[in-house]
Amino acid sequence: MADDTQPLSLLFTKTVRLRLDPVPQEQLGTPAALAAWLAGHRLTAPDVPVPAQLLREARELRESIYRAARSIAAGGRPATADREHLNAWAARHDAVRMLGHAGATWRPGPSPARSALAVLAIDAIDTLGTPGRGQVKVCSGTGCVAVYLDTSRGRTRRWCSMGTCGNRAKKNAMRERATADPAETR
Fold first, then answer.
1. Burial class of residue 87, CB neighbours in 10 A (0-12, 13-18, 19+)
2. 139 in the Ramachandran plot: left (φ > 0), alpha (ψ -120 to 50) or beta?
3. Cα 166 to chain center, whole Å?
């Protein structure tokens, strides 16, 4: 279920939906949900257990990645606490990068779920700490504040997903044009 066009670390930040709502929708509500997300993005095997404590740590990591990406998208720098948090997770890294039949993959260390989170921290550091980091943007869709990497040719992408936010914006614009006063459209 991985979106090969976006870094995994930025996809991980999308596990909270409707961030601007009074009660955002948490997609990682249980250790099993985190295990399913990690397995679905080929960071762990499907049967890897996730301890309850690691779920809390995963959410904290996700929020550090999100805040750091938002800072960079706004032209700033990540807060010291977020940088230190990402660096601490990356330092715990015990997974090994391997070339398999289907391409590059990670072989986890003794704690596969913890290794997967370290891989997400490393991915965030690579994404947010390279010259291309200026391509990190915040979705301009109504009510959406997802972060994404703009890899479009002219760096003009405006939405985190054309299938959701982009499509919604285009439908709304078409609806507005259809209901506009004909005298105004001349």
1. exposed
2. beta
3. 17
**Cβ(8)–Cβ(43) under 8 Å?**
yes
Yes or no: say if 27 and 15 are a contact pair by the CB < 8 Å rule: yes
pTM of the model: 0.85
What pLDDT digit, counting tens, does each position of 97-156 carry?
Answer: 889 888 888 888 889 999 999 999 999 999 999 877 779 999 988 888 899 999 888 888
- By percentage, how much of the chain surpasses pLDDT 90? 56
* Residues near 184 by beta carbon (within 8 Å), at least 6 away in sequence: none
- For residue 181, how many C-alpha atoms fall within 13 Å in the half-sphere facing its CB? 2
Q: How many residues does the chain have?
A: 186
Report all structural domains of the chain as residue ranges with CATH numbers, in order of start. Answer: 8-137 (1.10.3300.10)
Yes or no: say if 33 and 93 are a contact pair by the CB < 8 Å rule.
Answer: no
Query: If you search the block for the tokens 């507005």, which residue do you land on?
Result: 176
